[in-house]
Amino acid sequence: MKSDRENLLLYAVTDRHWTGRETLRQQVEAALRGGVTFVQLREKNMEHDAFRKEALEIRDLCRACGVPFVLDDDVALAMEVDADGIHVGQSDMEAGDVRALIGPDRILGVSACTVEEAVRAEQRGADYLGVGAVFPTGSKDDARPVTHETLRKICEAVTIPVIAIGGITEQNVMELAGSGICGVAVISAIFGQPEIESATKRLKSAVSEMVSR
C-alpha cells in the first residue's frame, strides 16, 4: 500500500505515555473508528518480542480498515512484520539507504525541518515528508521549531505530499491553512484525549476544512 494525499489527511502517531485504563490497541481502535487515515507505531524503549507482537496487532487493525501502517525508525522490524512502510528522522538511517532496504513498493516517510532536508529526502526516495514542529510540543524533546513560512516554502520546493507535525490541535490547525500541506500528524490531539473516537472525528473535520482553504 502506497501513500497518497488523501490517506495522509489525519496521521496518528502512537505514544504509550497516554495509555491509562486503555491499552494501546484499544486506543488505536478508537482512533480508527474516529477516522484516522494513517497510523505510525512509535516505540522507543520496548523489547523486541513485545514490540513485534504489538506491531502485528496494530498492523492487522489498520489493514482491516484499509489504513496505511508504518513503523518509526525500526527498518528491520518493519520488514519482519510486513508493515506498509517506515518513517525515519534526520538522525536515523539515511533515506536512500532505507529505500534500498525496503524496495520500491513500501512507504518511506522522512522528517524534515528545512527546504534543503526536504529536497534531499525527495531525491533519495521519500514518498512523503513530515515537517515540524510547527507549534510548541511536549511530545519530542528534540523537536526543532519550523516557521509557517518555512513550511510553505518546503511545500513549494517538493512534489511529494507534506504533512505538518508538532503541537497541532483542533483549536490551532486552521492557522496552517494555505501552507500547501495535505494533512497533519498528531499524538496528544488524539491519544491524549479522554474520548479518542469523538476527538478524532472533530479533528478530522477541522483538518479537512483547513486543507480545502
List the helices and strands and how they pair.
Blueprint: E1 10-13, H1 24-34, E2 38-41, H2 48-65, E3 69-72, H3 75-80, E4 85-88, H4 95-102, E5 107-112, H5 115-123, E6 128-131, H6 148-157, E7 162-165, E8 183-186, H7 188-191, H8 196-212
Parallel strand pairs: 1-2, 1-8, 2-3, 3-4, 4-5, 5-6, 6-7, 7-8
Helix pairs in contact: 1-2, 1-8, 5-6
In a few lines, what is going on in this structure?
Helix content is 39%, strand content 16%. With 213 residues, it is α/β, with parallel strands linked by helices. It has an eight-stranded parallel β-barrel with strand order 1-2-3-4-5-6-7-8, surrounded by five helices.
What do these coordinates show?
With 213 residues, the protein is of the alpha/beta class. The chain has a single domain, classed as Alpha-Beta Barrel (TIM Barrel), CATH 3.20.20.70. The chain contains eight helices and eight strands, in the order βαβαβαβαβαβαββαα. It has helices at 24-34, 48-65, 75-80, 95-102, 115-123, 148-157, 188-191, 196-212; strands at 10-13, 38-41, 69-72, 85-88, 107-112, 128-131, 162-165, 183-186. It has an eight-stranded parallel β-barrel with strand order 1-2-3-4-5-6-7-8, surrounded by five helices. Strand 4 (85-88), helix 4 and strand 5 form a beta-alpha-beta unit. Helix 1 packs parallel to helix 2. The mean pLDDT is 95.
Give the terminus-to-terminus CA distance. 28 Å
Summarize the amount of helix as a percent range: 25-40%
Side-by-side strand order of the widest sheet? 1-2-3-4-5-6-7-8
Q: In DSSP terms, counting alpha (H) and pi (I) runs of 4 or more, how many helices?
A: 8
CATH homologous superfamily placement: Aldolase class I
Query: What are the secondary-structure elements, in order, as H or E?
Result: EHEHEHEHEHEHEEHH
* Approximate strand percentage: 15-25%
- Classified by CATH, the class is Alpha Beta
For the biggest sheet, the summary is: 8 strands, parallel, barrel
Which residue ranges are poorly predicted, with pLDDT under 50 across at least 5 consecutive positions? Answer: none
Indicate the structural class.
alpha/beta
CATH topology: TIM Barrel
Domain count: the total is 1
Global Rg: 16 Å
Instruction: Name the CATH architecture.
Output: Alpha-Beta Barrel
Report the principal-axis shape: globular
Average pLDDT figure: 95
Q: What is the number of strand segments?
A: 8
EC number: 2.5.1.3
InterPro entries: Aldolase_TIM, ThiamineP_synth_sf, ThiamineP_synth_TenI, TMP_synthase
Function: Condenses 4-methyl-5-(beta-hydroxyethyl)thiazole monophosphate (THZ-P) and 2-methyl-4-amino-5-hydroxymethyl pyrimidine pyrophosphate (HMP-PP) to form thiamine monophosphate (TMP).
Pathway: Cofactor biosynthesis; thiamine diphosphate biosynthesis; thiamine phosphate from 4-amino-2-methyl-5-diphosphomethylpyrimidine and 4-methyl-5-(2-phosphoethyl)-thiazole: step 1/1
